[in-house]
């Protein structure tokens, strides 16, 4: 049985309260860090994996408040989220929840390179 994020937060807060020094009030610095974000936007592209076991790579366009558009790279490994995304066509509005990841690697000649992407845990179509 898995705990929802609100239950996890409550459990972490409870643990922080039990382990706090008596007479000391908790501050926002005492709260546990989390890596969870949600984005809502339109599916730009989706490439099914070349081999079984590889994540589905996709891109989602997110409209900013100033009217500009940000395109976010995503990877999806969870079967339920993969089914939702593969069933959606380009231009479909989606809400994705996941964690921000960053990969580093060395390239011949230019040195260190990196890529930041959203590792999708849940996906839902917005109608």
Q: How is the secondary structure organized here?
A:
Elements: H1 5-19, E1 37-47, E2 56-63, E3 69-76, H2 79-87, E4 93-107, E5 111-125
Parallel strand pairs: 3-5
Antiparallel strand pairs: 1-2, 1-4, 2-3, 4-5
Polypeptide structure, described:
With 127 residues, the chain is an alpha+beta fold. Helices cover 19% and strands 45% of the residues. It has 2 helices and 5 strands; from the N terminus they run αβββαββ. The protein has a 5-stranded mixed β-barrel with strand order 1-2-3-5-4. A hairpin with an 8-residue loop joins β1 and β2. The longest helix has 15 residues. The radius of gyration is 19 Å and the shape is globular.
What is this entry, summarized?
The chain is an alpha+beta fold. The chain has helices at residues 5-19, 79-87; strands at residues 37-47, 56-63, 69-76, 93-107, 111-125.
**How are the strands of the largest sheet arranged?**
1-2-3-5-4
Unreliable stretches: 14-21
Reported by name, the CATH topology is OB fold (Dihydrolipoamide Acetyltransferase, E2P)
Q: What is the number of beta strands? A: 5
- The CATH first-level class comes to Mainly Beta
Give the CA-CA distance, first to last residue.
30 Å
Give the domain tally: 1
The gross shape turns out to be globular
Structural class: alpha+beta
Mean pLDDT: 83
Give the radius of gyration.
Answer: 19 Å
> What is the CATH architecture annotation?
Beta Barrel
Largest sheet: 5 strands, mixed, barrel
H/I helix tally = 2
- Helical content stands at 10-25%
Strand content: 35-45%
SSE pattern, N- to C-terminal: HEEEHEE
CATH superfamily: Nucleic acid-binding proteins
């Amino acid at each position: 049985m898995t705990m929802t994020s609100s239950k996890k937060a409550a459990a972490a807060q409870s643990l922080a309260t039990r382990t706090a020094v008596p007479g000391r009030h908790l501050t926002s610095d005492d709260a546990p860090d989390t890596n969870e974000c949600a984005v809502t936007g339109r599916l730009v592209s989706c490439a099914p994996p070349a081999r079984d076991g590889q994540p589905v790579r996709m891109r989602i366009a997110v409209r900013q408040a100033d009217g500009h558009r940000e395109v976010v790279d995503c990877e999806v490994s969870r079967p339920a989220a993969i089914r939702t995304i593969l069933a959606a066509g380009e231009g479909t509005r989606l809400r994705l929840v996941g964690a921000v990841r960053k990969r580093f690697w060395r390239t011949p000649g230019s040195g260190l390179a990196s890529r930041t992407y959203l590792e999708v845990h849940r996906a839902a179509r917005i109608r």
